[in-house]
UniProtKB/TrEMBL annotation:
Keyword hit for Disulfide bond: no
PROSITE patterns documented for this protein: TSAA_1, TSAA_2
Domain TsaA-like: 3-145
Species of the source: Thiorhodococcus fuscus
This protein's name: tRNA (N6-threonylcarbamoyladenosine(37)-N6)-methyltransferase TrmO
Record's keyword terms, sorted: S-adenosyl-L-methionine
Length: 238
């Protein structure tokens, strides 16, 4: 068997830290699937406008296949302390490093790079290879009676997010027209508390960083809230 990608994801997540744990949690995360020339054919998408969401079948390219597969993993949901079987998880360390995400699609666009499918609520790293897309069919794909196992729904209490004066000035320079929805994206990502579940082992750590688009976002955890301190072009730090 051989599978070739149909295209690659271009997303705001240029680093694994900060990517939401599931799709749809950060609606400000808009991305596009840039189709390779062989698959950049509008007729291949005829009828997709009738579906609001699609399944994206992708490859965990940043972790595998170099890392190989593991029969047991430590899910972040369990704080990295307990092990479960890899087939009882969505971990990337699989015999075949394939993942799936159900995301909203916003239609096709033609631009300088060719044909792309716009996506929203993505949880994929920039550059992720995509093997296929399929329409999400609610009556067959949504199973409200299904058991969650250890993957309980996220808590409704969101982490409060604030911006320092310096961060606000940086934001005005980084995204002056709001085209990237950078402020909304930062708020939604940080409100999910992107820290790994095992961070309670390091109660004194307060300063963190993550990369969104080409920006390094620095933030501090204090008094139960995340305060964004600076937003700097990544190449400005080199």
């Amino acid at each position: 068997m051989r599978f070739d990608p149909i295209g690659f994801i271009r997303s705001p997540y240029s680093d694994k830290f900060g990517i939401p744990r599931q799709p749809g949690l950060v609606t400000a995360a808009e991305a596009r699937l840039e189709l390779l020339p062989a698959f950049a054919r509008p007729e291949a998408f005829k009828g997709i406008e009738g579906f609001s969401h699609v399944w994206v079948i992708f490859v965990f390219h940043a972790d595998c296949p170099e890392a190989g597969w593991k029969p047991t993993v430590r899910p972040p949901r369990l704080g990295g302390r307990e092990t479960v079987g890899v087939f009882a998880s969505r971990a990337p360390y699989r015999p075949n490093p394939i993942g799936i995400s159900a995301v909203e699609h916003l239609g096709l666009i033609e631009e300088g790079r060719g044909l792309s499918l716009r996506l929203r609520g993505i949880d994929l790293l920039d550059g992720t290879p995509v093997l296929d897309i399929k329409p999400y069919v609610p009556y067959a794909d949504a199973l409200p009676q299904a058991g969650n196992g250890f993957a309980v729904p996220p808590e409704t209490t969101a982490l409060a997010v604030r911006f320092s004066e310096q961060a606000l000035a940086d934001l005005a320079q980084a995204d002056p027209e709001g085209r990237l929805r950078l402020r909304e994206l930062i708020v939604q990502v940080l409100s999910q508390d992107p820290r790994p579940g095992y961070m309670d082992r390091y109660p004194n750590r307060r300063d963190f960083g993550m990369r969104l688009y080409e920006f390094d976002i620095r933030w501090r955890l204090e008094n139960g809230a995340a305060t964004v301190t600076t937003i700097v072009q990544a190449n400005a730090l080199s």
